[in-house]
Amino acid sequence: MALELHHPDQLPASAADTPLIDPYGRAVTYLRVSVTDRCDFRCVYCMSEHMTFLPKRDLLTLEELDQVCSAFISRGVVKLRISGGEPLVRRDIMWLFNRLGRHLQSGALEELTLTTNGTQLPRYARELYDCGVRRVNISLDTRDRDKFADITRWGRLEQTLAGIDAAQEAGLRVKINMVALKDVNGDEIPQMIRWAHGRDMDLTLIETMPLGDIDGDRTDQYLPLSRVRAALADEFTLTPLAERTGGPARYDRVEETGGKLGMITPLTHNFCESCNRVRLTCTGTLYMCLGQEDSADLRAALRTDASEGTGDRQLMARIDEAIGRKPEGHDFVIDRKGRKPAVKRHMSTTGG
Ligand code: SAM
Ligand code: SF4
After folding, report:
1. Which end of the chain is least crowded, N or C, by CB within 10 Å?
2. Does the Cβ of 179 fall within 6 Å of ligand 1?
């Protein structure tokens, strides 16, 4: 059943506590927000070496980010993930975490979390804990110093390792995200499992996704996790866990280590039927599906509300209209002839 769409001006102001339900009956309870497109790394699968970043005026201000996140929380979002680019390189980002912490205290928000490359965690881990953050995803594709430098182009392994130490010392639970790259880190996966689980961290493997132009050919990087899983079964006993997050991850218990292994396989599995999430870019564009271009401009609505003194009226109407267009699923594909990304925006724009 598709919802009838109206111009936002014709929509009534939404009741502040009405849940967001999409045309397929799925409740939207998870928002990922990219707070910047900038980063101190230039990972080969994520960015080209010479990126042109957005002018600062195009970004939502921290106050606007708080306003839009709070609007979603009032409409039933219970899990908020802050991402980027590298979220912790945005100036004064702790102001936003501090503000959002009030929703944890009120009980409206169940979890406030972030995905980071870890470089700024020695500086911020304790403060994040004090804001109510309890878990953090840290990206680490290899523990080989030279490979790390090759993959991240601008990064050093010690920076991310120091971030992991700082997070654990501050009491944050750490999950390691590792993008599986053919001929680069595939052979390192078993030792990463042992290392992460040995430090009481879960590990999630991610298939490369065709997002944004990079300098190179993505079909060279693509390593299907179905193949990885089959190879791991020679060495480990993987017991599938029932747990689902409403996202593209599936989890196994690794019996030998007792830890959890996640696999994010957007290209080989269809996870869309249980999708509970939407994504907001740092410029206030809402994407209802990671794999589709359809979007809604929340920044214009926010700024109209601000200039007309209409509170969240335009914003809520625009959100309702957008959720009414959330598609049933995506159609990711790595185009093997044109070698073009299926979706033009980079992961650093939408937030991974
Ligand atoms: N800078 C932070 C970090 O690296 O964790 C947060 C943003 S980053 C875009 C979020 C996650 O997306 C990281 O785990 C990264 O490895 C992953 N990622 C980036 N580009 C990707 C791509 N094309 N395919 C799959 N994962 C990607
Ligand atoms: Fe930066 Fe994260 Fe993208 Fe790497 S994956 S370039 S750390 S945003």
Report:
1. N
2. yes
Intra-chain end-to-end CA distance of the chain, in Å: 30
211: CATH = 3.20.20.70
Q: Which of 291, 290, 207, 205 is nearest to 251 (CA)?
A: 205
- Nearest ligand, CA 85: 2
Q: Going by DSSP bridges, is the β-strand pair 277-280/285-287 parallel, antiparallel, or unpaired?
A: antiparallel
| CB-ligand 1 contact for 281 (6 Å cutoff) | no
Q: How many domains does the chain have?
A: 1
What string of pLDDT tens digits covers the 352 residues of the chain?
A: 333 444 444 444 445 579 999 999 999 999 999 999 999 999 999 999 899 999 999 999 999 999 999 999 999 999 999 999 999 999 999 999 999 999 999 999 999 999 999 999 999 999 999 999 999 999 999 999 999 999 999 999 999 999 999 999 999 999 999 999 989 999 999 999 999 999 999 999 999 876 666 666 555 778 889 999 999 999 999 999 988 777 788 999 999 999 999 999 876 546 788 889 999 999 999 999 877 889 999 999 999 999 999 999 999 999 999 999 998 887 655 444 444 555 556 666 655 5
Range list of β-strands (E), 227-310: 238-240, 249-254, 260-264, 277-280, 285-287, 295-297
Distance 160 CA to ligand 2 centre (A): 12
In a domain, 91, yes or no: yes
Token pair 């009030």 in the structure block, residue: 102
| Structural domain for 91, as ranges | 8-349
Predicted TM-score (pTM) of this structure: 0.90
Q: Looking at the domain assignment, is residue 2 inside a domain?
A: no
348 touches ligand 2 (CB under 6 Å): yes
Q: Which numbered atom of ligand 2 lies nearest the CA of 348?
A: 8
Q: Is residue 1 situated within a structural domain?
A: no
In short, whether 348's Cβ falls inside 6 Å of ligand 1 is yes
User: How far apart (Å, rounded) are the C-alpha atoms in residues 297 and 280?
Assistant: 10
Candidates 51, 348, 350: which one to mutate for ligand 2, based on the most atoms within 8 Å of Cβ?
Answer: 348
